[in-house]
């Protein structure tokens, strides 16, 4: 999806041509949840002149009540008019905003600002772009017709690449694609995924910042269209047991002014030394950034053997069981595919920590271990140990312990986001530990 270029005059013209009556000023909180302030079109000039304020004290992970006034600076390249009919009230447009403190300095509790900070570090190292091609998966569940609330009833029993009538989500998925294309997305493919009720829509890569913007827009479109079909779309990593969970594989490539920095026509496997050092950094910090890329208690129900999700810290160009895969495409398409990320992740924070891990590999010339081209799931513990393969954290609690011990990833999050994130996730884990599940009652109530 190409990054558009809009001027203030362009936006004023589009507002008149499209009869835009309301503006949604969007940003993202600590947890990756989309937030927005909606204002009438009469506030357009104030917005374009960076003169709109909001109360940041009510947003999770933002600021205290005594320092709540914050500015919203629109990123004009994210301007978008929603195609959905708004009756007689005209159309609604959105723009993604950067959050600034009252003193007009960038607020570093804004995950998008933090990603921009890491991208600036990347540019100081001589790189121009970090491209991301995300592959977010989601489930469709039926809505209760009486309450309108989500159920856990699937709308189909399809599997990978199935067609209607088995795939009853096909019409919904097709409408999602059409809405995305109206918004300027370049959709490359859409299909039913492995699990019943599970779907994937793949859209073209973009630079890291706008790829994260696209993920947030994608989630909004998917949920909006699904509801029109009487369905609830969820990006929860593992909504049902004994079936595959939803991932968000991240395809990534680093560029200089001369082209793809991961490609070397004369290198081993045509991978550059840059690619190998970046890969080395990814693997070194994988256990630490997992708390960010897989940030919920539920995330770790997906990261178990037997359901296609990666469990082991390793890489390969020839099989899909390791954490990182190197697809066969070369030239400008040379890339690394990180397979552990799930769609509950805050995309800005996830990409910031992933990029920081790779840059650390480049700065310190961290050599990637040898590729593992066997099915790791078929290895026993001794074989994995002999090949230097370690596991990803098995719980959110263990992932947080890894995160708190890794200065590179902590720095990539910034002190404000890091401290608020760890505090919130420790509370989440503590609340989970106190819950008694139905599984426990079935296992132990009569036995003991």
Topology readout:
Layout: H1 8-18, E1 20-28, E2 34-40, H2 44-48, E3 52-55, E4 69-74, E5 80-81, E6 91-100, H3 111-124, E7 129-143, E8 150-154, H4 170-182, E9 187-192, E10 198-203, E11 206-207, H5 208-228, E12 231-234, E13 248-256, E14 259-260, H6 273-293, H7 299-302, E15 312-316, E16 322-325, E17 336-338, H8 347-363, H9 381-386, E18 390-391, H10 396-404, H11 407-413, H12 415-434, H13 438-444
Parallel strand pairs: 1-6, 15-16
Antiparallel strand pairs: 1-2, 3-4, 4-6, 5-6, 7-8, 7-10, 7-11, 7-12, 7-13, 9-10, 13-14, 13-17, 15-18, 16-17
Helix pairs in contact: 3-8, 4-5, 6-8, 6-10, 8-11, 10-12
Label this structure with key terms.
448 residues, cytoplasm, phosphoprotein, alpha+beta, Ubiquitin-like (UB roll), Creatine Kinase, Chain A, domain 2, 12-stranded mixed β-sheet, 6-stranded mixed β-sheet, Gln_synt_N_sf, 2 domains, magnesium
Verbal overview:
By secondary structure, this protein is of the alpha+beta class. It has two domains: 8-107, Ubiquitin-like (UB roll) (Roll); 117-439, Glutamine synthetase/guanido kinase, catalytic domain (Creatine Kinase, Chain A, domain 2), CATH 3.30.590. It has helices spanning 8-18, 44-48, 111-124, 170-182, 208-228, 273-293, 299-302, 347-363, 381-386, 396-404, 407-413, 415-434, 438-444, and strands at 20-28, 34-40, 52-55, 69-74, 80-81, 91-100, 129-143, 150-154, 187-192, 198-203, 206-207, 231-234, 248-256, 259-260, 312-316, 322-325, 336-338, 390-391. Strands 7, 8, 9, 10, 11, 12, 13, 14, 15, 16, 17 and 18 form a twelve-stranded mixed β-sheet that branches. Strands 1, 2, 3, 4, 5 and 6 form a six-stranded mixed β-sheet that branches. The protein is globular, with a radius of gyration of 22 Å. The termini are far apart. The relative contact order is 0.12.
């Amino acid at each position: 999806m190409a990054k558009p270029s809009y001027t203030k005059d362009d936006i004023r013209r589009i507002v008149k041509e499209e009869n835009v009556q309301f503006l949604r000023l969007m940003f993202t909180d600590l947890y990756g949840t989309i937030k927005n302030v909606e204002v009438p079109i009469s506030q357009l000039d104030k917005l374009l002149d960076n003169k709109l304020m909001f109360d940041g004290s009510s947003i999770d992970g933002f600021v205290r009540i005594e320092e709540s006034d914050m500015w919203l600076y629109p990123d004009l390249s994210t301007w978008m008019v929603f195609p959905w009919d708004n009756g007689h009230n005209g159309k609604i447009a959105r723009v993604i905003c950067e959050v600034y403190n009252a003193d007009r300095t960038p607020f570093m509790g804004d995950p998008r600002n933090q990603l921009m900070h890491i991208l600036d570090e990347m540019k100081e190292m001589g790189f121009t772009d970090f491209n991301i091609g995300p592959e977010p998966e989601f489930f469709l569940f039926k809505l209760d017709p009486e309450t309108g609330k989500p159920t856990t009833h699937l709308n189909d029993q399809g599997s990978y690449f199935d067609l209607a009538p088995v795939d009853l989500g096909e019409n919904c998925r097709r409408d999602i694609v059409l809405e995305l294309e109206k918004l300027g997305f370049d959709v490359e493919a859409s299909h039913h995924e492995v699990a019943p009720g599970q779907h994937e829509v793949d859209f073209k890569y973009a630079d890291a910042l706008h790829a994260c913007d696209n993920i947030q827009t994608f989630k909004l479109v998917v949920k909006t269209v699904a509801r029109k079909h009487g369905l609830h779309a969820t990006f929860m990593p593992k909504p049902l047991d004994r079936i595959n969970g939803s991932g968000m594989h991240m395809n990534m490539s680093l560029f200089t002014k001369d082209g793809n920095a991961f490609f070397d026509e004369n290198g081993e496997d045509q991978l550059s030394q840059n690619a190998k050092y970046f890969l080395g950094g990814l693997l070194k910090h994988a256990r630490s950034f997992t708390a960010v890329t897989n940030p919920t208690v539920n995330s770790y129900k997906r990261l178990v053997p037997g359901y296609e999700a990666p469990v082991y810290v390793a890489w390969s160009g020839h099989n899909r069981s390791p954490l990182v895969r190197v697809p066969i495409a070369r030239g400008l398409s040379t890339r690394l595919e990180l397979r552990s990320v799930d769609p509950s992740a805050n995309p800005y924070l996830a990409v910031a920590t992933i990029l920081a891990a790779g840059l650390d590999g480049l700065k310190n010339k961290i050599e990637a271990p040898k590729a593992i081209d066997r099915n790791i799931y078929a290895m026993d513990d001794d074989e994995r140990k002999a090949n230097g393969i370690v596991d990803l954290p098995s719980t959110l609690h263990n992932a947080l312990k890894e995160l708190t011990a890794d200065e590179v990833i902590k720095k990539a999050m910034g002190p404000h986001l890091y401290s608020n994130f760890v505090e919130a996730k420790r509370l989440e884990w503590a609340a989970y530990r106190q819950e008694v599940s139905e599984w426990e009652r079935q296992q132990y109530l009569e036995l003991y």
